[in-house]
Amino acid sequence: MLRSALRYRTWAFLIALLVLATACAGGVARPQGWAGGVIDEDTNVLYVGTMEGRLLAIDLNGDGSPIARFELTGDDNKRAIYGNPYLVDGAIFVGGYDGFLYSISASPSGEELSLNWKIEVSPDEPLVGGPVASDGVVVVGSSDGYVYAFDIVQEREIWRYQTGNKIWATPSIKDGIVYIGSLDKNLYALKLFGTDSQVGERLLWKFSTGGAITAKPLVMDGRVYFGSFDSTFYALNAVSGREHWKFEGSRNWYWTGAIADGQTLFVPSMDRKLYALDATTGQVKWTLETDGDLTGSPVVLSRWIAVPSDDGALYIANLSNGGNVEKCEIGARLRSDLVAVAQQDTVYVNTWDHSTVAVTVKENGRPDSLWRHITNKDKWKQDWRDTKGGEIC
Amino acid sequence: MGFIGDIWVAAIERPMINALVLLYHVFFNNFGLSIIVFTVIIRVIMFPLTVKQANFTKKMAALQPKMQEINTKYAKDPQKKSQETMKLYREAGFNPLGCLGPVLIQFPIWIGLYRAIIETLPTTPDKLADLSQNLYSWAAPIVQEVIPLSGSFLGADLAKRSQEYPLPASLILPVLVGISMYFMQKMTMTPSASPSQESTNRMMLWMLPVMFGFFTLQFSSGLALYWIVSNIIGIIIQGFITGWEPLTGLFRKKVPKPATAPALTVSNQEVIAPNEDNRDNSEDSRRSDRTGTKGAKRRPRGSRNRRR
């Protein structure tokens, strides 16, 4: 009996260990990517970064059919896009999780978007925040903790600046100053132009917070607005970096950047709320509550504001008072920034289930889905249409 | 995720995540120290079970002579042998499967800790965003300044798997895990009552360290650190309860066993075979040793084998 008990115990233990190893060995996280998109309003083409590590051009004139695509390089563990693509002068800049900065032509060549150039910013260090360009210079932050600036035409690095931790934020550029947050809890203001030898000290100022910063700063009217992991939303003087006011009403981190309409800021928080704040005083005008984290930036439409939520719904609320709230139940997590053609009251959102959805907002504020473009099909030009049928909203 | 998944997260994963983050905040922003302290806490909680397992080993060792007797006596009658063995257990108040509890309870801890390390040391933005939902609302304001955590410890990244390092660095943790597991097995192994049990013990002694060494390559280095520390603590506890002989015996020089003398047959004398009952600890026995017949009684003077 004892021999049997011991033998059973031995084999049961070993089999359980094998099951443990099999069940858990695949638990290492693979980057998913949650990039938004950018619209070329001249051609009415939407360029989205998909979860498959692809830049996809979608025709907005018709029913959302695909036009062309560009595949990022790298193996499956690195082929992801987190930052929004940036369009300037006929070129689209994309930061890849593979550590490369891509310049891609916005004009398709057949079914492909051709590569202008690509630069390996830092080997084995992902680019998570999106690139931003101004006056011939494209700026991007890297997971190696550096901010990099590249000459768009000459395709070479102009300068780099080191911070204390990874940079997962997208920068903002205004009046020759780069504003960028780092996971080292600081917001940096850096001179955009000139090499290090020309400008001497690159840093204009830095502002320390109590938590990491991943949000893209909003720069307007001489102020910089951004949120931090210390659950505080800050307004600073853009030139001096001095604190103008701060809002401490949130109970969780700020992940994504705020947007503005006039003197009203719309600030999404991971406490599942969108705060409408007075840009001058930081006073709360109204609050929109959702059922999920807000990690994607909202977008302002004609009379509405559209807010993507991790609960799988797109919230539409009245821009002036946050009332008349309608929901479009898309059914998949919404973690990307929205992009919209404001005059058309149409919003485009990337979903966590590998699709791009177009939603229009009617006069009465009710959302109506236009199409769903599935992005992970092998036959991307034939099978992109969602054939499940039925309304999304 | 489902009801069971929700229970798992609420009862196991989330407490571990918060514990690790809080310990990180307390212990100088060092994730390695956090895991070490976490391991000590877990071992303290499991101390009653560990003592139970150690006493199981002790009881098994005490029962070995009687079990050997039963094996010898009923070698040809397996049914009777089984009955007598169970009777022995009952009389001793011993449950041979009682050691399974302490062993099985380790599994959810390992799985939970593995998942907690992945969640606490996120390598992707989505995982970092998910961490905010795993922190308790009362803990978040305390630990927000340490997010994101750094997994750096003694030159290693505790979020990485050993196989992600180049050789020979990738083998350091698997070897350490294997060695500590081997010594742990040695300390807790029950003595063998039969050849088949001996072979089972030998299998476990080597197979577990090899398996865990292999697992170390697959799982994050933080889990390997937990195993190493947990094994060391287990060895110490076992040593204080049952003694250090299994360990010290490994390092002691082995003394060759003396040869067993054949039985002496002398006319008009009883057959004398060397056994404990006949052992004489006086000087005579030492003289017997010199003649190579340990324990044998000395032949009276003048006697010899004679045929009459």
Task: Give a brief description.
The complex is a heterodimer of chains A (393) and B (308). Chain A has 393 residues and is mainly beta.
What does this structure look like?
- The complex is a heterodimer of chains A (393) and B (308).
- Chain A has 393 residues and is mostly beta strands.
- Helices cover 7% and strands 43% of the residues of chain A.
- In chain A, the strands form eight sheets. A four-stranded antiparallel sheet of chain A has the order 1-2-3-4, with no helix packed on it. A four-stranded antiparallel sheet of chain A has the order 5-6-7-8, with no helix packed on it.
- In chain A, a hairpin with a 4-residue loop joins strand 29 and strand 30 (346-351).
- Chain A is globular, with a radius of gyration of 23 Å.
- The mean pLDDT of chain A is 90.
- Chain B has one domain (2-194, 209-248).
- Chain B contains 13 helices and two strands, in the order H-H-H-H-H-H-H-H-E-E-H-H-H-H-H.
- The radius of gyration of chain B is 28 Å and the shape is elongated.
- Chains A and B meet through helix 1 of A and helix 4, helix 5, helix 6, helix 7 and helix 10 of B.
Rg for CA atoms of chain B = 28 Å
**Number of helical regions of chain A:** 2
Structural class of chain B: mainly alpha
Which strand order spans the largest sheet of chain B, edge to edge or round the barrel? Answer: 1-2
Which percent range describes the beta-strand content of chain B?
under 5%
Overall number of structural domains of chain B: 1
Q: What's the overall average pLDDT of chain B, rounded?
A: 77
Largest sheet of chain A: 4 strands, antiparallel
Order of secondary-structure elements of chain B: HHHHHHHHEEHHHHH
